[in-house]
Amino acid sequence: MKSFLYSLPCFIFLTSCGDKPVEKEPSTEQLIGTWVCKKLPDGFTRREGISANKELPKLIISEDGSFVATNFPGHVQDFTNTWSLSRPGITPSGTWSIYALGSHFQCLKSGDDIKLRYNLDATYGYVADFERIHKPKK
User: Fold this and answer.
1) Which of 117, 99, 120 is nearest to 107 (CA)?
2) Phi/psi at 5 (5° precision)
3) 80: which of 2, 62, 95, 118 is 20 to 30 A away, CA to CA?
4) Considering only CA atoms, which of 24, 3, 16, 1 is closest in space to residue 125?
5) Model confidence over 23-57: pLDDT tens digits?
6) Beta strands 84-86 and 97-100: pairing type?
7) How far, in Å, CA of 49 to CA of 27, rounded?
8) H or E element in which residue 78 lies
9) Cβ(129)–Cβ(58) below 8 Å
10) Domain-wise residue ranges, the chain
11) Class of residue 133 by CB neighbours under 10 A (exposed 0-12, middle 13-18, buried 19+)
12) Which contacts qualify for 65-70: CB closer than 8 Å, 24 or more apart?
């Protein structure tokens, strides 16, 4: 019964969102580029003591496998890592995800575009959504 009560908020949260999981494997071209978080949740910023003037998190995903994160919550400095694409069956969210920093960034369909969702705090349902603002030139 307890596990049901814990999973109920996650189920309600995921089914109430307008964004859909990406069902078809995203191409590298759909993922590489510069991604920015449009807004951090107010409750999360208050709890973490994050200033409203702080620059929002940004991700740079490169074709060579490098992954750069700047202004990321919970990290004192910017960092570089590698990324890989994870299949839906092996991810906690059950959707295609980018695996980097020891976490999964869910690939969600938002209209015709893909956006990335990072779970900041699963207990309170705080997420950060990233939209791609720069696509590499073909």
Assistant:
1) 117
2) -65, -35
3) 95
4) 16
5) 889 999 999 999 999 999 999 999 988 888 888 99
6) antiparallel
7) 37
8) none
9) no
10) 2-134
11) exposed
12) 67/98, 67/100, 67/101, 69/100, 69/101
